[in-house]
Specification:
alpha+beta, 5 domains, four-stranded antiparallel β-sheet, extended, Four Helix Bundle (Hemerythrin (Met), subunit A), Helix Hairpins, 620 residues
Length: 620
């Protein structure tokens, strides 16, 4: 049985993927623990799915927000693992841990990250059509995908330039092919551009029924833990095809090529169909596809999209206010017999006149004229006053939407960069997440005695109220690029008083060991540690360097910082995990509902006990 379990473990380990995407490069952590490996993209799409590590960070972040903690309960990760296994059709979804070996009751992101990069996730093979779709849709999947993306962007920019600046395009073609043939070659170039766009759209459309979008383009929106424990993804080929066609970017692609094909097919059959040439300006939509690579363009696009309903409501209110004012103006101006009565002869004409004033539209045929009667002037003054009120609310709301979208897009981009930087720092042995805090660094002094004396400041994790173990932590002896480095093992064990309080001063045991170095000075024979064991007092210990291994024995310090007064400072909160106001309201209402249900149950129990006591009194 033990041999079978061992074989099963080895088999599962060999079928797991330890390669991840970091955007424009791939990452694989060397299991032997020496150095990380980052390498460029492959030429062709990979045969197995390579997840972006940021996808797992998003899953963990959503679970942490739901739990209102800086770490995620193991139960939540187990349920998410089952959902991923079930969605991606992993055999024995209840037996396989998608995230690797996790055993802590509460897992932080470094715990999950370490498990992923060392153990990997189950290997998931991609079909041929999925690899083709991935190449056409994701520029960072391989070098061929990047080349195809640049071809599409070049064709879009060149085709749009020939439409907006025809004289410049004509001059360029004349310089290349001469004065007599430039029109022919210009038409050929436009046709080739449309054929490239068509091939891109049709190829993805043909592949879409056979592509698992939740795998090729994974998103945290598909994986939300609820009572169903099922990912909400399209299952059938028709659903996948419709999902592809209804995506905004694909609608943009279709609008960019449809007018050209309709013009080609119907302009000779239906002479009136020549109006289709007018909407060829839709080719500009191809440039919008690149919006997802620019943060501010995304913010503006999402703000406009989410403000459509609000703008529609404001337009309707302006129409109603204008119609009411138009009825009054038509009656007052015609009745008073002003010189401009022909402008207000009918209610629709009066409405259009007042509507132009409400939206600031000028230089229109039917928008001329002035109000001359005193009643008309009063009506116009009241109406224009309402105009300011009508525009205050939507502008404030649009500004709020812009602020929210800006925060989401920018914070996501920052979180992605921070995740990559922390990962590379972790595998390089210089991870600062365990030793930094908002109150600054707590450092000790390390002195190295050789022919000369050199020293370095080593940051310590004394502010942590949980056990921290840093292996081969790198500390440079100077700020130059070629400076010598020492490799340290740091073990911090907080005391019971510090574990029970989030705001207690450092108290516990600190163990320090030099385990190696790089470009260490010649003649190095001993080192000295100077550690702040109290708030304003230090302790020094000297150890001898072992020349053969370039290591030292472990030195231990008892840390006991003291201070007076009470600790009123709140627990440190990770900015990346702060919930927005709506999520906070939902969580509070959920907790209040649970508390109300618990109170009702307790009331029922009290009533039952009261009835039992009455029965006992009756018997007595």
């Amino acid at each position: 049985m033990a041999v079978r379990d061992a074989q099963k473990t080895v088999s599962e380990r060999s079928e797991r993927c330890v390669t991840f995407s970091l955007g424009d490069e791939l990452f694989r952590y060397e299991v032997n623990g020496e150095t990380p490996c980052t390498f460029g993209l492959p030429w062709a799409p990979p045969s197995e799915k390579i997840f972006d590590l940021h996808f797992f960070w998003q899953l963990w972040s959503n679970l942490a927000k739901a739990a209102m903690r800086k770490d995620v309960p193991l139960v939540a990760l187990r349920n998410m693992s089952y959902m991923l296994n079930d969605t991606y059709k992993i055999p024995s979804p209840l037996d396989v841990n998608f995230f690797g070996q996790l055993s802590k009751k509460y897992c932080s992101w470094p715990d999950l990250r370490h498990s992923l990069i060392t153990e990997g996730h189950p290997s998931i093979k991609l079909s041929f059509l999925e690899r083709v779709f991935l190449m056409l849709e994701e520029p960072n999947s391989c070098l061929l995908a990047k080349a195809w993306f640049y071809v599409i962007m070049f064709a879009a920019v060149a085709n749009l330039t020939s439409f907006i600046l025809p004289e410049t395009a004509t001059w360029i073609f004349e310089q290349i092919w001469g004065h007599h043939h430039h029109e022919k070659h210009q038409a050929i170039f436009s046709t080739v551009c449309i054929l490239i766009f068509t091939a891109d759209y049709v190829s993805k459309l043909v592949c879409s029924p056979f592509v698992r979008v939740e795998l090729v383009q994974p998103s945290e929106k598909y994986f939300v833990l609820d009572e169903s424990q099922r990912a909400v993804v399209p299952q059938t080929g028709i659903q996948r095809c419709m999902d592809f066609m209804l995506q905004v970017t694909n609608i943009v692609d279709l609008l960019a090529i449809l007018p050209w094909w309709l013009d080609l097919c119907f302009v000779k059959i239906l002479p009136g169909a020549a109006f289709l040439r007018i909407i060829r300006i839709s080719r500009i939509f191809h440039l919008f596809k690149s919006a997802r690579y620019f943060d501010m363009v995304q913010v503006l696009g999402l703000t406009l999209w989410k403000s459509i309903n609000l703008v529609g409501i404001v337009f309707a209110l302006i129409t109603v206010v204008g119609l009411f004012a138009a009825c009054l103006l038509q009656q007052t101006e015609v009745t008073m017999g002003s010189d401009m009565s022909e402008v207000f002869e009918t209610v629709p004409a009066s409405w259009f006149w007042i509507f132009c004033r409400l939206i600031g539209m000028k230089d229109t045929i039917y928008g001329k004229g002035k109000v001359q009667s005193y009643f008309g002037i009063a009506i116009l003054a009241v109406t224009l006053t309402l105009k300011g009120v009508l525009w205050i609310v939507p502008i404030a709301r649009i500004r709020q939407i812009f602020s929210q979208e800006y925060a989401i897009v920018v914070n996501t981009s920052k979180a992605r960069r921070k995740m990559v930087d922390d990962l590379l720092a972790f595998v390089a042995g210089s991870d600062q997440s365990q030793v930094q805090s908002r109150n600054g660094y707590i450092c000790c002094n390390l002195q190295l005695y050789s022919i000369t004396k050199e020293e370095a400041w080593v940051p310590l994790p004394l502010h942590q109220n949980e056990e921290v173990k840093l292996e081969k932590y790198r500390v440079a002896l100077s700020s130059s690029a070629s400076a010598a480095e020492v490799f340290l093992d740091i073990l911090w064990k907080p005391g019971a008083a510090m574990k029970n309080s989030a705001n207690s001063l450092p108290q516990g045991t600190l163990a320090l060991t030099l385990v190696g170095g790089w470009r260490l000075p010649d003649g190095l024979h001993e080192i000295q540690w100077e550690v702040p064991v109290d708030t304003f007092s230090t302790e020094k210990q000297t150890v001898t360097l072992k020349a053969a291994t370039k290591t030292t024995d472990t030195v231990t310090f008892e840390i006991a910082w003291t201070g007076s007064g009470e600790d009123d400072e709140p627990r440190e909160i990770d900015d990346d995990l702060q919930m927005d106001y709506r999520d906070f309201q939902k969580q509070v209402l959920h907790l209040l509902q649970e508390q109300a249900e618990l109170i009702q149950e307790q009331q029922q129990c009290v009533q039952e006990y009261g009835q039992r006591l009455k029965g006992l009194d009756t018997k007595l």
